[in-house]
Design brief:
Elements (H helix, E strand, L loop, with lengths): L1 H19 L4 H21 L10 E2 L4 E2 L7 E5 L13 E7 L2 E2 L7 H4 L10 H34 L6 H29 L11 H33 L5 H30 L15 H29 L8 H19 L15 H13 L1 H11 L2 H27 L7 H12 L3 H4 L3 H5 L4
Antiparallel strand pairs: 1-2, 3-4, 4-5
Helix pairs in contact: 1-2, 4-5, 4-10, 4-11, 5-6, 5-11, 6-7, 6-8, 8-9, 12-13
Length: about 450
């Protein structure tokens, strides 16, 4: 009977716990049960009672030793708090024949478990939809970001500090998407639960990689904010020198925090696959830097909008008031995905505050952030489009002139250098058109 209760309760709790963390759902419950079982069996070894009822573990609750005729009342197991706010008690009598059955029976009834009020098919479908949603989002982001990276890497004229920072941000999004896919396969797709108790080094390494990718992504969003704010505030600065500081912040700082978290988990909380984060105090080693980066980026966002307002109201800007507000609105919308401003909405609320809304907003909407950033800052970027059009025209011109010369000038093969030089001169941009500030390029869509 006790095993039957676990078979009903564990799957139901699974979806609830998966909403709160990256934990494989049933692990939180099974780890609690295993901890109580180990403690009970350890106390049973030292139990030297010869009369009455000995200490007993019934697969759910640990019953202490008792004399014949004694009535023992125990509180319901801790994990029932996930199912109901009413936590009752269970009772057993110690008789001359041993322990009596539990009453009121079964455990589920005594502890306030109501299958009708417990999240059933509808909530299960909701969490399944959320998982499908963020899987689609990360897939689209991965495709778009990979294409954007190829474009920015191939065209040398797009190589500048601003685009280098964009490329690092794109890479952090790519790594985050890959880490999410790997985590889901390892923790959620397999039907086994052995890793809840004995986890391989590979499983733990996967969680370390996942946490690093998430934190690095937040820190590169912070770097984007710092760089754009520096462009607006400081007139002259060494971009090369600053760039190495950005590298240190984006990839180095997360390494420090994740290394500290890994060491702490190894020596103080080496449980399962390290996916348990709900009640672990060590989770703040990761959570605190992320919250700080979100807060700093939000402050930078407000400062940049204030500077944009001042620039748009400058006498040098010859637009009417409606045009100014339109440009400001477009600039603001462009900065929101680049800075990750949407994370501020739920960052400082408790984990159980509007849990379903928070899930949709952070997991589903957040998974499309990489796709939106790739579209806005690569595919719709004026410099990128101009370079693609130039390469496209050059390719057509080379193809046309090449086929024409092939039939009318057979001796061209010995003078291929002159031909290439002519094509380069036809397609070359003037230095004046290539020069533009990082700030202007950043808002080429406005």
């Amino acid at each position: 009977m006790e095993y039957g209760v676990l078979g009903v309760v564990v799957p139901v709790l699974g979806w609830l716990l998966s909403a709160a963390s990256s934990t494989r759902p049933e692990c939180s419950i099974m780890l609690e049960i295993e901890e109580e079982r180990s403690q009970c069996l350890a106390e049973l070894i030292g139990d030297n009672q010869t009369s009455g009822c000995r200490r007993q573990w019934d697969n759910i609750t640990c019953w202490p030793e008792a004399e014949v005729g004694e009535v023992v009342v125990r509180p319901c197991p801790k994990y029932f708090r996930f199912l109901t706010t009413f936590l009752g008690n269970v009772t057993r009598n110690c008789t001359s024949q041993g322990w009596s059955d539990v009453y009121p029976a079964p455990y589920a009834v005594a502890c306030g478990y109501d299958s009708n009020s417990t999240p059933g098919e509808e909530q299960t479908a909701f969490y399944g939809t959320v998982k499908t949603g963020y899987t689609i989002g990360h897939t689209l982001s991965l495709i778009a970001l990979t294409a954007a990276m190829i474009i920015l890497c191939l065209f040398r004229k797009l190589h500048c500090t601003r685009n280098y920072i964009h490329m690092h941000l794109f890479m952090s999004f790519i790594m985050r998407a890959i880490a999410v896919f790997i985590k889901d396969v390892i923790l959620f797709e397999s039907g086994e639960s052995e890793h809840c108790f004995v986890s391989s080094v590979g499983c733990k390494a996967m969680m370390v990689f996942f946490q690093y990718c998430v934190m690095a992504n937040f820190f590169w969003l912070l770097v984007e904010g710092l760089y754009l704010h520096t462009l607006l505030v400081i007139s002259f600065f060494s971009e090369r020198k600053y760039f190495w500081w950005y590298i240190l912040i984006g990839w180095g700082a997360p390494s420090v925090f994740i290394t500290a978290w890994t060491i702490v988990r190894i020596y103080f909380f080496d449980v399962g696959c390290w996916e348990e984060i709900v009640e672990s105090p060590f989770w703040w080693i990761i959570k605190t830097p992320i919250l700080v980066s979100i807060l700093v980026n939000f402050i930078l966002f407000i400062c940049i909008i204030r500077i944009l307002v001042q620039k748009l109201h400058s006498p040098d800007v010859g637009h009417n008031e409606t045009s100014q507000y339109s440009r400001l609105a477009k600039s603001t919308l462009l900065l929101i995905p680049l800075f990750g401003i949407h994370y501020i909405m739920f960052a400082f609320f408790p984990d159980n505050f509007k849990a379903e809304v928070k899930l949709v907003f952070e997991l589903v909407v957040g998974s499309f952030q990489g796709f939106v950033v790739a579209v806005l800052y690569c595919f719709l970027n004026g410099e990128v489009q101009a370079e693609l059009k130039r390469k496209w025209r050059r390719w057509h011109l080379e193809r046309f002139l090449g086929s024409d010369m092939k039939y009318h000038h057979p001796s061209l093969g010995s003078n291929g250098t002159n031909f290439s030089t002519q094509i380069s001169m036809l397609t070359k941009c003037s230095p004046k058109t290539r020069r533009c500030s990082g700030f202007q390029a950043e808002f080429s869509l406005v």
